[in-house]
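Researcher: Sequence of Zn(2)-C6 fungal-type domain-containing protein follows. Predict its structure.
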Amino acid sequence: MSDYYRHFLTSMAGVGGHPPLGQHDASIPVQHAPVMGLGTAPASPAYQNMGGYFNGYPEPIMFSAPKAQRSRRKSAPGLDHIKHRRTRSGCYTCRSRRVKCDETHPICERCRKGNRECVYPEPTPPKGSQKDSSGQSRHESPTSSRDDDDDDENEPDGSLTPIMDEDEEEGESATNQSSTRNMPPPQSSASATSLSFNHGALNARQASEGDMRDGHMLPDGASLPHELQFYLNYYRENITHYHYSVVNDCDNFFQEMLTGLAVQDEALLYAVVGFASYLNTLQNPVGEINDFLQFYNRSVTLLLGFLKRKERHTDLTLLTILQLATIEEYLGDWVNLMGHQKAALEVLTELYTPQTVMETSIGRMILTWYTRFDVFTSMMGSFETMLPREWFTDYVEYYEARTAENPTELAYKIELCSGRLRLISMEMALLFGRGARQEITEEEYATEHFRLYNALHEWKNTWDPALLNPELLVTDLSLSRGATGTDSIFQPLTPGLLFRPPLFASTILTCEWNSIALMHGSQGASDPSTETMGRLREHAYIIGQICEVIETWSLSPAGSLIIMQPCIGIAALFLPQEEPYQFWIRKKFALLERMGYIAPSTMRLRIAELFRDGSCLRWWLPNDEGFTPMLQSIRAFADERNATAVSTQSENLRQIRSVFSRMDIRSTAMGQGQHQGQLTDGVSNTMLLE
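Model: Prediction complete. Tokens:
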């Protein structure tokens, strides 16, 4: 790989640029910036010293303060310091709850009373036991102290509030007990347990099916630490391909293969665990931002070390980069995502050709994963996709052949349908890029624009009938959680939009088609007519209907609203600028952020300008409804990190063009009133990219 990516990872890490991460106050409020001219909103100063997790040190920064600093704190005048020794052998559950464990085996008294899972660390090996390359015993408890004299201050997450037992707080409900069992094990430094991986030594294409499905064993046969097992299990039980904005996963790659592949490569393992920990932390009432940053930082550090050694790239290298890119997307950092994307392109074209990538299920998902980033960033940025057209056409041809061989296989039909829409999107990005660079005349642009209009409608009108099977249509919404108040603006649902599995992908594809048609219609060679604006508003309305029913239908798959977020983003620009619609949009953005998909500050700024309401810059809902301390911490961290990315990745920003400059929504008559919103040239693609 070229030196670009190593320098990129180092610039992300900011080697030596910040002191180690210390304890922060999750309740620090996010800065409420006023509506201002276009540009990046000011970053919160609360995270200016977060560099400990992105500093590229050989080993991740521990959460505790340096010993010298601790001793100064202990000897502060006026304080009678009482030293509390912490046992090494208490159970994980008591440690996570910050309560004293009586160390009764096999189940301690607190866990027995609370009906909790009681898991003890493995015994500390005797002196002289085998050490790993970092000098630490491989069987040492990941949460134990290395110093018998270390006290509570040396424990990570020292601010966690103890959870009372039944004898301490009467009436503890079964719900609370259940939620405790689903809590992660006590936090430990990601570097505390070396897993003795050989990064890149195993090629995913050579892995056996059993290896890919076994997520509990390392290649050398040693058991995974309990903390990593917890997050891998959480991943399997809660994360789907929809969380990756992938329409269909006919080979069960994300549900079955990825965690198995992760235990073959340490950097990939920590990237996957980091993603699972991030989503879990948002749902944890006592979660802290440190809980997932330790894993993310460990993955970046390992990947950087691997690249510096210039070892042979494998599928596992590529999957690590793609997983890190997904985390960047969730943090709203499309600038750094594009840095990962550039590296992924280099590895992808090194390992594969357009033909060979289709030969394995792993290769096919890698291509799907990558092209989703490629098409989206290219369309939003008005530049060509990084992958040539051949990669997209060979994908379509592959599934055309599979469909012909297996005419009853729905999964192949869905992949073919999705691949054709992605090909049209790629061609749209090519047109927008050539138009932005003025490489074609207005007449040539208009001709190609009209061709793509026909291609889009041909795609929609030539679906295989099996993808519209009326027997799988949802006509009874009695299982819906219901929509009231402003949500009723999208009721009732237009017939034929919602399909149950295995045709749920048809609903997703319909929504994506409407968003792409909306994007295409807004990028005409001339200003949109009243008729065109009416059609665009219809597309936006259908997107709202689909998103509303997906949210409220109780049988919607996990993560299915995440894949809708680009559709919601563009629909927000074309829905009527009336209070009920604006409040609906704000509720959807709030929900997406609570699910982990952070709206970047630039996006909030654009919506604030569109709605003429500066409160969007702080939070979407009145009185900070749903804006939890954990979410405030993540939002503040993401804002500062994105602001850093904007300054350090200026070359990427210079490539971004204003695709939304064509979306000049003037006071065009629509229905009974006027469309009051106006998007100026400044409302650019960076709304979704930054």
